[in-house]
Design brief:
Largest sheet: none
Distance between the termini: 44 Å
Strand content: under 5%
Shape: globular
Number of strands: 0
Order of helices and strands: HHHHH
Radius of gyration: 15 Å
Number of domains: 1
Number of helices: 5
CATH class: Mainly Alpha
Structural class: mainly alpha
CATH architecture: Up-down Bundle
Length: 137
């Protein structure tokens, strides 16, 4: 499950970066896209919590908060060490990990989730390239 832990970390950082970009942009189309991507990452993280992590940990709020702190780090909302990370690079890394996870010996439910995420990540990468091209014109 090392690949899953890496994927969750990349998604957690991606969620923060997409949120930061959504807040900082003035373009409503880009803001909407960034917000949707941040929510997708949050939803995926919670899906993994429901399918895998929660089964192995207590289901009380303390277990969720401990897992959340481990995933995001302490005080991640008030520190800004992630500004230098490129969103497209994060998504490319997440895409590669999803492809690796799809080939793992996992349940069909998890494989389907990784396939769904890989498709979303490909769409996001294409959209980010398109936004970059439009911003040059």
């Amino acid at each position: 499950m090392e690949g899953l832990e890496c994927l969750l970390q990349v998604y957690a950082i991606g969620e923060v970066r997409y949120t930061e970009r959504a807040v900082s942009t003035k373009n409503p189309l880009i803001r909407t896209f960034m917000e949707r991507c941040a929510l997708e990452r949050s939803d995926f993280i919670m899906d993994i919590w429901q399918m895998v992590i929660r089964k192995n940990q207590p289901t009380d709020i303390g277990g969720l908060l401990a897992w959340h702190k481990n995933l995001y780090g302490k005080d991640y909302l008030i520190t800004k060490p992630l500004y230098h990370l490129n969103i497209a690079s994060l998504d490319q890394t997440a895409f590669e990990i999803c492809q690796y996870m799809m080939l793992s010996n996992l349940s069909e439910e998890l494989i389907a989730l990784f396939i769904e995420q890989a498709v979303k990540l490909e769409v996001n990468l294409f959209t980010l390239k398109h936004f970059k091209i439009l911003s040059r014109d």
